[in-house]
Amino acid sequence: MIKVLVIDDSAFMRQLLTHMLDADDNIIVVGEAEDPYEARELIKQLSPDVLTLDVEMPKMDGLAFLRNLMRLRPMPVVMVSSLTQKGADVTLEALSLGAIDYVAKPKNNHQNSLALFQNNLIYKVLAAGQITFDAPPPVRHNLQPNSDVSHKFKNRLIAIGASTGGIEAIQTLLTPLPANLPPVVITQHIPPVFSTSFAVRLNKNCNLNVIEAKGGEKLTPGYVYIAPGDKHLVIIRDGAHFKTKLLNSDPVNRHKPSVDVLFNSVAEHAAKTSIGIILTGMGNDGSQGLLNMRQKGAYTIAQDQASSVVWGMPGSAVEINAANEVLPLADISSKLLTLLTIN
Questions:
Q1: What percent of the chain has pLDDT above 70?
Q2: Residue 147 designated active-site
């Protein structure tokens, strides 16, 4: 059983979260707290495995509490966020401080919205319950290609897929890379608004130009295209070039955007000149697409288990032999440049 402490200043939300979590046979809510000070005492008394934490809290905001928690007693935390610009910005900051994942509060009390919220909540708390905090954060290095080989980047393409833990993993991967990298297309499981904030955050921290894909962009070296949170991202060929395209079709593997949808489009149009990377995440989305890429000539990489927050997606890819290589997150950036300069 995964023991959960629910932290929220709203009595209604505490009751709702407790009711939803207790519906799963593998989860038990051992306590509720209305502010971080009460939560601190209950953590000592109850030793929960996972916390759910509201972003906006009285007396001490969620970020301040999380910062202290990760310094004094690191443990899995799932943020409960409003689906707003402010909620997205604060949640991304929480992830950088050590929160494992987040779930966006339902927009309304409609039965379908509440059911989706409950499914996501349980799914992410179960994932968080399997996580330990043994591994130190990877060391980041700025990487620069030799100027005489950068011309070999022409007509290459990098495709990346991730889920739980992926927001920080993608930043770790991209931050040290040079500005003249080939085009990068990314699907991260993320809701609308959050994907916009994620692109802005990456753009501030990277040498590359990071944008949320709108559809129809010509893939250009030095640019990173993030799938929006409510549409699938694919690439299509347009003469001698590639462009982005957005699909408003059904979820695939429970997700929209789906990593498999992106990877399969790369396999179809650009496999022999592409590199596929699957990072941390729960489930198996992306594994079949990565296998498709490899079988059609792409070089494929899966993040290793030790550096993954959740080794579901990369683990599934490794299990079906979809990856040419399995690497720690901290080594993928340098391996990427090596592949680009020797091919």
A1: 93
A2: no
